[in-house]
Specification:
Blueprint (H helix, E strand, L loop, with lengths): L1 H26 L7 H21 L20 H11 L4 E7 L3 E8 H20 L3 H36 L9
Antiparallel strand pairs: 1-2
């Protein structure tokens, strides 16, 4: 089982790093008019990693103890840059839990994207310290607890935005 966990940790770490790299580039101005579809791809790809964590058996740490990974990174610059780039489409409405809390909640794409990044970075801290099982535990726990919800909400919002840009076409008037 240890080899399977290590292989899974390697895959999730690669997805996490790809997401972080893509998010940083897009926050930094890359992507131009394709920013929204590119964000959609980044979130969808990291959501695949989350789904794999959700489908896996529970990762249980020996002694139920998580070693410290050091200080959490400051993602305010990325969050602020994303909010600026997203402008008026940063704010959206979402149902937090369609089974328990069906009220509509105000969300921000920039907050969601940065929250996902923060949880992934925390797991990468364990992974890079040579603790792949702790990394998997953290990614799985935080997927169910926080980043899975943020990624899912962001993906729905981004899909809607991309769909609107493609489908909300103004009819051209023709003169005869």
């Amino acid at each position: 089982m240890f080899d399977e966990w290590n292989a899974m940790a390697d895959r999730i770490a690669a997805h996490a790093q790809n997401y972080l790299d893509g998010l940083t580039r897009l926050a930094g101005g890359e992507g131009g008019d394709a920013m929204l579809p590119m964000l959609l791809v980044e979130v969808a790809q990291v959501s695949l990693a989350g789904a794999q964590l959700g489908a896996a058996q529970d990762v249980i740490l020996q002694g139920n103890f998580e070693p410290a990974t050091g200080p959490d990174p400051d993602l305010d610059g990325v969050r602020t840059a994303l909010a600026t780039r997203l402008g008026p489409v940063d704010d959206y409405a979402e149902v937090f839990d369609p089974y328990k809390d069906t009220g509509v909640t105000a969300y921000r794409l920039s907050d969601d994207l940065a929250a996902v990044a923060a949880d992934l970075i925390h797991g990468l801290g364990h992974y890079r310290a040579g603790r792949p099982l702790e990394a998997l535990w953290w990614w799985q726990y935080s997927y169910f607890n926080t980043w899975g919800n943020h990624a899912g909400a962001a993906m729905r919002a981004l899909q809607a935005l991309v769909a609107h840009t493609r489908l909300d076409v103004v009819e051209e008037t023709t003169t005869a």
